[in-house]
Amino acid sequence: MVVYAFDVGETLVDESRLWLRYAHYVGVPPLTFLGVLGSYIAEGRDDRDVFAHFGVDFDRFEANLTWRNRSEDGILADDFYPDALPTLKALKSAGHRVLIAGNQSKRMNACLEALDLPVDKVRCGEQWGAKKPTHRFFQRLLREAGTDAGEIVYIGDRVDHDILPALEMGLRAVLIRRGPWGHVHSAWPDAARAGAVIGSLRALL
Ligand SMILES: [Mg+2]
User: How far is the CA of 176 from the centre of ligand 1 (A)?
Assistant: First the structure.
């Protein structure tokens, strides 16, 4: 039995709304904010450095943002890429186990669970006390999957957080080339280590 495990941001979910909202609340024009994000992605730097660049502490910022804008908060059904839900459903229907396991916060994870997605489990790094790219995250994933590492396919948009640590733990790994990380990382030499580089989740079928 093959277990398909999915990253969230830019693998299943289009984060455009989220990042534009960040730009708005940081008080920077969207092009400026996303341009700096892009340069930091290319340098392999942490996303939080973008906030620091504009003099904002991310943790404090996010806590305030949640408090001020609860109605726009979290992940909405409309945020999913058009191929995401049909692919999850098709994999389930074909008899595979399907997990969602990413670095989303517990709060974002609760949003995903509320959407009643066609998957077996929705888990997050904050729940496990272990975020990607740590091996501990993938050890927890292995335990949840309840099968051999070689039977698990991890699908993500980042070479550094998804592909390389999954391969190091013996999982199979598929890189999706979309979103800013996917487009930048798919040009990195290590992208060739992924079992496949795909442009749409439908390629998994
Ligand atoms: Mg991602």
Answer: 9
> How far, in Å, CA of 79 to CA of 52, rounded?
26
Domain boundaries 3-14+77-204, corresponding CATH code: 3.40.50.1000
Residue 74 banded pLDDT, cuts 50, 70, 90 = confident
Please give the Cα distance from 180 to 41 (Å, whole number): 8
CA of 95 from ligand 1 middle (Å) equals 25
d(CA 91, CA 80): 17
Residue 132 has pLDDT above 70, yes or no: yes
Domain regions of the chain by residue span? 3-14+77-204, 16-72
Question: What pLDDT score was predicted for residue 60?
Answer: 85
Please state the pTM of the whole predicted model: 0.95
Measured in Å, residue 15 CA sits from the centre of ligand 1 at 9
Expressed in angstroms and rounded, the spacing between residue 104 Cα and the centre of ligand 1 is: 9
Q: How confident is the model at residue 66 (pLDDT cuts 50, 70, 90)?
A: low
Q: How far is the CA of 8 from the centre of ligand 1 (A)?
A: 5
